[in-house]
Amino acid sequence: MLVAFSVAPSGSDESGSVAKAVAEAIRVVRESGLPNETNAMFTLVEGEWDEVMDVVKRATEAVQASASRVSLVLKADIRPGYSGQLAAKVARIEEHLSDTP
């Protein structure tokens, strides 16, 4: 399964930033050992249901450690029997983009 999620405190620090709290969530993801990718809006994680949801839960708890209220947005692609889709899905799109019309 692939999960794209975004977790952040509902409030910001005195500078208006949520980067420090979000960095703690991303640290949890990266230390999980699961395939992952982070961009400006979401973090993607790939693995089995229980392991991915555990990472999302622990990342959320990492943010919650510094905030009384947390926002979590999650989207999942559940496709049993497939792995390596974090890169494969993008590769399939790139293949079609490189086709000459």
TrEMBL record:
Pfam families, sorted: Thiamine_BP
Domain Thiamine-binding protein: 3-93
InterPro entries (alphabetical): MTH1187/YkoF-like, Thiamine_BP, UPF0045_domain
Residues of the signal peptide: none
UniProt record similarity statement: Belongs to the UPF0045 family.
The protein's name: Thiamine-binding protein domain-containing protein
Organism encoding this protein: Lentzea pudingi
